[in-house]
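Q: Can someone sanity-check these two? First one:
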Amino acid sequence: VRPGAGPARLRPPRPPLPPEAARPASEPVAPRRPGDRVGDGDEVGPDHRVGASADPGPPPAAGRGGSASGRPCPRCRADNPYERRLCLRCGAELATANPSSGRRQLPWWRRLFGRDPDRVLVAGSRPRHRTWSRPRLALPLTLLVLLGAAYFARSQLSDALTFTQDRTGTPEALRPEAGRASSEAAGHRAGAAFDGFTNRYWAPAETGPATGQYLETTFEKPVRLRKLLVIAGGSVNQDEFLAQARPAELTVTLFDARGERTTQAVNLRDQPGQQTFDVRGSDVSRVRVTIDAAYGGSPKRRVAIAELEFFGRR
């Protein structure tokens, strides 16, 4: 120590080399297994700390670009540290975040509208709530368009309503105002076919098949005709039924309030009792039933019609 100099600084002693460094390079170092206890004579190196496991765990997977910084997210392919369970970018679970597995297939009718309640949202995001702005001009314009369409289609709407009523409701009996015929036999006037009694009938003046002879009736107000009921022959009793000729084919002519006419052919069976036919017409004010052919026609017999009844709506 020089005179007048300060206190001398002592250099700390150099630590001894680890046992691995003192061993020859050719001598391998035995790895230590988990659970092994360190004895008094055992050498403890930097890789053999007490209480530490020698198994480092599975190596980290190479991320994007081949680096070993972590494992990539199966959903967004972002690199994540190996110890994380959720992705840093999208928040998906790294163990099971497979877009194609773990999600049930939606039915086709839900895929059309794009509704997926099981969709995994990105971390930090919230589902978007659709809000409708208050209509200003859209609602009044829509109402005006609907009112205009209803005004121009009022006739079609009325027909649709009437058609629904005809299909769902039961037709009611329509009583004609008066009846007349092309000709009448003595005691068998035209009104007998519209009086509601089956023991009286109408018959034309001439005998034989009576082709072209007709019955006609009118209504006080135009009606919607749906059904025609016919009782052929002189009565519903079998003996009286066969005593006169019976109509086999009829032509029903409907006259509406504007004078237009529609016709429909009706074929009857040769049997006593009532027979019902679908005869449809709107705004019918007059009906004519014309005989085209007959059963049992002969020069000594007349074609007889016991009853004609009409059903529909007024």
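And here is the second, same format, sequence then tokens:
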Amino acid sequence: MASELPPQVQNQIAQLQQVQQQAQALSSQKAQVELMLREVEAALEELSKLPEDAVVYKSAGELLLRVDKPTSESELKERKETLELRIKTIDRQLERVEKRFKELQEQIKRALGSKRPVAE
């Protein structure tokens, strides 16, 4: 069937597949970042339960380093902000990719003279 399609439509279908792969990759990245964010939030919650003079350790490669609670909280809050910003960035990228996907879908439908949706 691909050989029956005009080159322009074949190119649009290839672009559609690339955009779909981009969306899947971004969704996967977002899931990973959300998982990291939940871990940071859980660590912050546990830290909040500890007294100010509690002994806290953080992992640095294969080492555990002793840090004071305020330093640990500060580092985790900064990490949380970074992860939240990354999620917002991925969301914006996903919106652009989804918009491009829909545009390509419409172009292909028009080129094929079809009103039925292209497989997603």
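A (reply): Looked at the second one. The first strand starts at residue 56 and ends at 60. The helical segments are 7-48, 69-112.
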